[in-house]
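Sample entry follows:

:::
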Amino acid sequence: MGPRVVYVHGNGNKVRPELLKSQWDTALFGRDMAEASRMAYWAPVRHPEPVPDFRPDPVDGRPEPAAESRARADRSGPEAPEEFVARTLDEARHEAGGHGPDVRAGAQDGALAGWLRDMTYLADTLAHAGEGEEPGAALPLEALPLPRPGRTGLFRLLVEQAFKDVHAYFFGGAGPAMREVVAEALDGPDGGPLVVVGHGLGAVIAYEVLTEQAREVELLVTVGSPLAITEVQDQLTRPPAVPAGVAAWRNASDLRDLVALDHTLRPEYAPEQRITDLLVTNDSTDHHGIAAYLAQHEVRAPVQRLFDHGAG
C-alpha cells in the first residue's frame, strides 16, 4: 500500500470538496493525486453551502478587490482597533447562541481574546506601514502592495472571518463535529505511510484528533498554524506535546502571517527533536494563503520524497 495524505483546511467557508482537494494537490504535488489524497472537509459544520467555484477566499489569501474593501471602509467609517475587537467578540458570542463564556468580559484578558487583540493591532500597524515621519525608514515587516484602506480592510476581514470559526470550535460547540470529520478522513486504507497537512485552524483540529487517537503518522505538516500561541494552547483538551504516533512534525509559517503570531512550537511541544520549525516566505496577498505555503520547497520536498520512496 502506497503513502497517502490527508488535508485539513482552515478557517472560513470553502469551495466544494473535490475542487478544494484538487487545488491542494496541485499546489503540493503539481498534479492530481486521485485516491492517494483526501480532504477532511469540515466547512459544512459551519457553512450550509460551499463557496461558488473560484470565488476569492479572503482567509486563504485571495482577498476581495482593494476597491471593494475601500468602498466598504468608506461606508462604515473608521473604526478603532479597540472597537473592532469588542464588536468581533460580541458577534462571535452571538453567533454561538450566547452559549459559553462571556468572551467580551470574562475572556478579555485571556483565551482567544488575546490572540484576536494581537492580530488586530498588528494588522493596524501594517496598515500604517510606509506612512512614518522618516521617509525611507526601514520597516520591520513588509507592507502589502495595496493602498492603506485596502490593507486595513483586508486584514480586518481576515481577522473577523478567522476568529468566528475558531470561536465556534473552542467555545461554540462545533469542535466535536469538526474533529469527527477529520477522524473519518483519517480512516482510509491502512498499510502505507500517512501524511497529515493542516492549515490554520485545520492544524489545530488535526493536532487534537491525532493527540486523541495516537494514530501512526509518518509526517505531520502544519502551515500558518496558531498552535504556538499561548491563548490557543490554553484551550487545548490536553497539554501541548507531539502526538504519540507522529514520527516527524514540520511547522512552517511566514513572519507576516497574522494567524501564526508565534512561530516556534519546539519550546512547548515535547519531544522537541521531532519538530522542525520553519520560517518561509508566503507571498500571497495576506501571507496566510494555503497555495503559497504548499508551494514552498521546505514544505513540499519532505512530502514528495516520502511519496517517491513509497512508490519505488
The chain has two domains: 4-52+174-311, 61-170. The longest helix spans residues 148-170. DSSP finds ten helices and six strands in the chain. The chain has a mean pLDDT of 81.
